[in-house]
Amino acid sequence: MPEYDPGKHSMIDSQVLSTPATRNWPALVELRRKFAGRWVFSLLLVTGCAILTLLVLAPLYTLLSKSVENRAGEFVGLENFAHYLSSGGIESAFFNSLWVAGLSTLVVVFLAFMAAWALTRTRLPFTGWIRGVLVLPILAPSLLPAISLVYLFGNQGVLKDWLFGAEIYGPIGIIMGSCFWTFPHALMILLTAMDNADGRHYEAATALKAGPWRTFWTVTVPGARYGLVSAAFVVFTLVITDFGVPKVIGGQFDVLATDIYKQVIGQQKFEMGAVVSVLLLLPAMLAFIADRYVQRKQSASFTARSVPYKPSQDRKRDAVGALMLTPTLVFIFAIIGMAIYASFVTFWPYNLDLSLNNYQFGRMDGGGWGAYGNSLQMALGTMVIGTILVFFNAWLMERTPQPRFLTGLFQFLSLLPLAVPGLVLGLSYIFFFNHPDNPINGIYGTLFILMLCTITHFYAVSHLTAVTALKQLDQEFEAVGESLNASRWRVLFTVTLPLCLPAILDVALYLFVNAMTTVSAVVFLYGHDSQLASVAVLNMDEAGDIAPAAAMAILITATCAVAKLIQGLLRFWVDRSTRPWRQGTE
Amino acid sequence: MSQKTQGSRLEIQGVDKFFGDFCALKNIDLTIEPGELVCFLGPSGCGKTTLLRIIAGLECQSGGLLHQGDTDISLKPPRDRDFGIVFQSYALFPNMTVADNIAYGLRSIGMPKARVRSRVDELLNLVGLEDHVRKYPAQLSGGQQQRVALARALAPSPGLLLLDEPLSALDAKVRHHLRSEIRNLQKQLGVTTIMVTHDQEEALAMADRVVVMNNGVIEQVGTPLEIYQQPASAFVASFIGAMNFIDSSPLNGQRVKVGNRELELVRPLPSAEGAVRLAIRPEDVHLLPCGDGEWEGEVRALDYLGAFIRTHIRLNDVELDLVVDVDPRSARRLGLCVGGGICLNLPSDALHCFAA
């Protein structure tokens, strides 16, 4: 029997192949091939990295170095921190921030979990509408709930008695306001975690004679555990870094976010602002790292074999679900309703006639209609520039050949903004872009820097959305394209972009809404000619024009709602015209 | 109908591939003749897909050369190579109709519109999808999507067709049907074809030659018959079809010892010293009524597999378990039943011998 001779095959060519280029330097051959025609993409991603370095890393570095310098710019080590400690700032602001954010997180995650359970595990009618209402707060600036709470529970509030003599100006107000605007964030995370439940798990629990309560604790809660953890981290970070709510309703209650504002705007102590920023950066960074760690452990439990869970008909459970949704729905309606009502009341609480007086912004300080126009321009610019930048970079990272260290670096740079509070980002922009030696300090005080700052501030979530959409496409599209003589660019425009259109619309809306509503990042950066509507709300509130502030907040919310409506129509149109791409005719 | 294109010859010389320290392919040498259909067969992780991707240029070899026809393609990017590829997932563009998918490669090379249309029609005829031109991939069955992917890959008339597990996403019936369809199409067009598969039945049924791979090396290259009847290594013997292995120690010449018995082989031993493994296919073992054969055993279990019965037999005196395939008629004649005794012969011309 002819035995296989391994030498037979290699023998033929051994003399041909002993050229050093192929045999002794395998790495070199690989390198040569890798760079042939691919360096363009690497160069582009390097550019992407450079842009993000300029927008995130460099300003942050300037901020960190400012925190260890004195006013004259000399290095003083930790002296500023020691000074802040001895002034008692740690006890008040730092711990206040921690416990207020912690308590808000508990409340929001609890309410959001109840709501998500009711929406995914019962057969309540109108869940589409209910979902819509529950995420409404995302369209409003965080200042709106604070203003509304003042009307409800403030000194002249309609429901003042409900607090039994307690003050709304302080932790109670901050927690209530924070719960309002962070609720949709927690709800969306939990809905994603709970929407894709495997029905087989529930059937297995029933077959093993588990009652509803045991099923809840052994199937539902474990299935949502990563969502719960993620929601908790997100809400904690949002609350501790938020500036709008404590500014309006915090009263004498100090938190880190308002402390930065006071140090910088009130006392012009920039180096102390930097110190507080670093202290605010710490918990946000920790939450960010912990969340990343948990997400990495999460593996998809919903596989192709899973059967989607369909709740069975159960009147009693539906009633429980309705009961769980009611307080949240009432709270959201009360807050938004109160703000709308207050914005039309002629002179609270003495003249309750409805009028448009408060919408005549020209009569008040704060920038008026011009600020609103600026906001629109800024939001549209952010939307267009941001969406293009985010998608192009995500495409480079996901769908073109790149050295691994480069994609790693880019991923780090694009997620970093998630850990940087808006106020900290804004302050570091002052230090970096307003520096006399910075060649582009001309953009300081313009709408352009506000756009850059806002894009950076909301880069991470947009980036994740884009990456998720790009990952879902078949990994071999580019390979097929190359085998068919089509460049990656052609595949991008003929295949990738059309398929990613829904995600592109989502990112665009996300950037627009956040650019309209954000206060924290831009409050340090606006100039005389670039006042923004959201900042105008803040300034009018500070000046005591609280009704016009409510009116402006409602105007912003309405604008975002219109944007959401337009985006919804576009998505509907896209979904309808691309239905044949996704499903069969059967 | 489509004119017969001249498939190209492919020569792979000393190709290595490292992923970090892991050696995925080691010194691969292989020549594929024009018009041939070659299957890369092996367990997952054996390097067969990596080799295919290197041939396509989607992965770069760490060392070694590739020639397609007279051209050195070792360092060429995929776009400059002449091949069509079908992936396991098909990777059809979901936002394009069947016709647009097939025309994609033709438009890339700037073919005039009228010619694109006639070429697309030609291919649709070839794969039998004339009625589905305006449909989108999601509106087709798995088998139909497969055909579109094939047509798309063949549209620019490549000299080389690469198929990466093209049938594994389909259910058994469609798979069997498409197998012969692809084979016929390939013969008709004369395109040199490489197919990666982990399904031995598929490889044996379709290929002119099979390349059996394991742990990054080629274990054997041969026609399906050679691979099955003359496996070059114990790995090939066990991977293709079923095989009984019997440990033994060599005596002098062509004699080996199994337990306390001696066996005469028809072929020389692979090595002079060290243990050897004998191997025999289940259908080659000769069952006899009790008392007639050289070996005595006891039937431990019977698996009815339709056309034949897989019999598990224990040879008590050498403590050996054998699997033997018997047709139902012989089984009846032998009176096979669990717990019953049986005799058997191991025909020496059916015994393979490998170094242990």
Gist?
With 586 residues, chain A is mostly helical. Chain A has helices spanning 6-17, 20-23, 26-35, 39-67, 79-86, 89-121, 127-134, 143-153, 171-195, 199-207, 212-223, 225-241, 244-249, 256-266, 270-297, 315-344, 368-399, 404-415, 422-433, 447-457, 459-472, 477-483, 488-517, 533-542, 546-577, 579-582, and strands spanning 345-347, 351-354. In chain B, a hairpin with a 2-residue loop joins strand 1 (10-19) and strand 2 (22-32).
Question: What brief labels describe this structure?
Answer:
heterodimer; A: 586 residues; mainly alpha; MetI-like fold; two-stranded antiparallel ribbon; globular; disordered N terminus; B: 356 residues; alpha+beta; 6-stranded mixed sheet; 5-stranded antiparallel sheet; 9 helices; 20 strands; 33% strand; elongated
Characterization of the model:
- The complex is a heterodimer of chains A (about 575) and B (about 350).
- Chain A is mostly helical and about 575 residues long.
- In chain A, about 70% of the residues lie in helices and about 0% in strands.
- In chain A, strand 1 (about 345) and strand 2 (about 350-355) form a beta hairpin.
- In chain A, helix 8 packs across helix 9 (about 170-195).
- Chain A is globular, with a radius of gyration of 27 Å.
- Chain B is about 25% helix and about 35% strand.
- Chain B is built from nine helices and 20 strands.
- Chain B has helices at about 50-55, 100-110, 115-125, 140-155, 170-190, 200-205, 225-230, 235-240, 330-335, and strands at about 10-20, 20-30, 35-40, 65-70, 70, 85, 160-165, 190-195, 210-215, 215-220, 245-250, 255-260, 260-265, 275-280, 285-290, 295-305, 310-315, 320-325, 340-345, 350-355.
- In chain B, the strands form four sheets. In chain B, strands 6-7-8-3-9-10 form a six-stranded mixed β-sheet, sandwiched between helices.
- At the A-B interface, helix 1, helix 3, helix 22, helix 23 and helix 26 of A face strand 1, strand 2, strand 4, helix 2 and strand 10 of B.
